[in-house]
Amino acid sequence: MKLSIVIPVYNSAPMLEELFSGIRQALQGKQDFEVIFVDDGSRDNSWEKLEALKKNFPDAVTAIRLSRNFGQHNAIVCGFGFVKGEIVLTMDDDLQHPPAEIPKLLEKFKETNADVVYGIPKNRQHGALRIAGSYFLRKTSRYAAGNTGEGSSFRLLKRHIVEKIAQQQQRTMLFIDEILHWYTGNIVTIDVEHHARRQGRSGYTMFRLIGLVLDIVVNHSALPLKLMTWIGLLSSLLTFALGVRFIYRKLMYDVQPGFTAQIVAILFSASVLMLCMGIVGQYMYKLFLLQSRRPPFLIDKQI
User: What angle do CA 189, 190, 196 make, to 5 degrees?
Assistant: First the structure.
């Protein structure tokens, strides 16, 4: 079975040659493979490096350049449209996923015949903030979107799952792990090594991770709408209780409600309404993106 490896590339020119060399060393003579690099709007000379790899290994390398940065998951889905293998592997471009670990995923796939095999790092070699952000992202994915399993960008997939994802008509932010858990429950994991990033900085800053969390909550769950319902119910009960209290004081003691109480009640109600309007606005914006039919990525060049 031919293996297609999809790698999103972003500002990783110094590591591309070593990455491809590691893949060849791990698989040559053992597994028929191809590597599909998707340059996600890199600002360094990553594309020139990919052109050189394509020139030296024309049968094993496919290089795609997107018109701008569309995000890691959209770049991977773009690569899915070019795969030729019966099984597909995705991995990062920064060598934190060692190519020597690829055979582990292949062996696990042969043992279990699972639809998806995740390579889960035993010890994540990230900074403390990145580890905390990734942990929060996984927890949010689990409780907000119903994803009950582990996730990693180092994953092996069957061809029919890849084809379903490639045909996904979602034109907003894509999050592959949520889509995978929607299409199949036949998912297994295996522990793999994880190395520290040797050069450059990760594109996933803390602010970007927070943005990804918000996108997951809005795009893959109805949790905000449920929270709006509960907040509205609780605020209504609280307002009703305060109203009964003031009416009771007026009837029994002829006490006029104070100015402070009125201001607090008005500000509380207004803040709840503004919060709910903001959440509804986010869903309306997502609907607008779907109706506008904007593609999740645009290809500038392919070799």
Answer: 115
Q: What token pair was written down for 139?
A: 């927890």
Confidence category of residue 296, pLDDT binned at 50, 70, 90: confident
**Residues 17, 104: Cα–Cα separation, whole Å:** 22
Instruction: State yes or no: pLDDT of 127 exceeds 60.
Output: no
Domain ranges of the chain: 3-221, 223-292
Q: Report the distance separating Cα 299 and Cα 229, nearest Å.
A: 42
* CATH 3.90.550.10 correct for 3-221: yes
pLDDT on residue 198: 65
Distances (CA, A) of 133 to 59, 152, 179, 272: 39, 14, 21, 28
User: How far apart are alpha carbons 89 and 117 in whole angstroms?
Assistant: 9
Sign of the Cα torsion 166, 136, 220, 115 reads positive
